[in-house]
User: Fold this.
Amino acid sequence: MYQIKELANGIRIVHQEVTHTRLVHCGFVLNIGSRDETKEQEGLAHFWEHMAFKGTKKRKTFHIINRLESLGGELNAYTTKEKICFYASVLKEHYSKAADLLFDITFNSTFPTKEIEKERQVILEEMSMYRDSPDDSIQDELDALVFENHSLGRNILGTEETVSKFSQQDFFDFISTRLDTSQVVFSIVGNISFSKALKAIEGPLSEIQPKRTLYARSAFHTYVPQVKTINRDITQSLCALGRPAYSQHDPNRYKLFLLNNILGGPSMNSRLNLALREKYGYVYSIESSYQPFSDTGFFGIFFGTEEKTLKKSTQIVHRELHKLRTKKLGTMQLHMAKEQAIGQMAMAEENYAALMLVFGKSLIDHGKIDPLERIFEQIRSTTAEEVLAIAEEIFNPEQLSYLTYLPN
Assistant:
């Protein structure tokens, strides 16, 4: 259902045509993220994402922002621990303009000094906003606890100290040492043929000189469970618990995805939601999450509650974890859990903008794109015994780290 072309410089183009839409979604996925920074560079990848919109060799900020927005399109970007993505959604007749603009901001950014100073203040304000949102900051602080003394534990935004020091040369140096053309994918999903998609982007991409980097990510393997309590100016107690989990190359990753969905996934019938919200009304929301990385992964649970119900809520969380560690799922329970997870994946595939980014990341991470049906097969073949064994390992309370925010 998709086509891939690899250029001589290693850059890959992946495409899927969808005829029942008027839109085309396209974007660059770079295998560079915040974990690839040194301590002194903390926040530089995210700053680069911002600066990509602030000037290129042929465009100023206004022309970048206005190029697609004036056509009803959208231009955006984001940074994660392992990826930077620049992407756009436009009417199919404006695809070539989107491709040209994305190429320009990805490879021709000039990082004007005046714009660096202005954007520095924007990012510092972003940090202040983040600190004022304990629901967001507790997740990042749990990362720091779980991945202590490792780049995976650092905040994607960086620190005030590092962000305040970045210069134009820092961006050029970072790109020079981290950008590998074999780790760049341009992904297209929408109402356009492969030949037309290539026509707009293949020429410019082919002119980029091949580049291989000697840089290699530092693997994480020093986890020590920790417990930490912080007093903050909040009215509700917040609790987070988590640990390292399976990497994106581990054969158990889809089984853990299934297990996490049962425990605290997005549906209202997750065990944690039923136990804490529906039965007792102790929380407004509670969720668990599983995020695989290239060499490790992260599993976490997050919830907020009144201080007087914190202890009881925590006990209920542990009770649900204990059930999954000690009691095998029944045949009907497992079947329903599989159908729910498969249904959620199928609905997610209808989001073509997200699918475009999934294609790019999958090609970088695995060198291929697994058909959704193959993923469904892995979920359907999961046994109750396998789910129990994974729960015994991942939900072991002695291997969990705990972070609590208490009201002052």
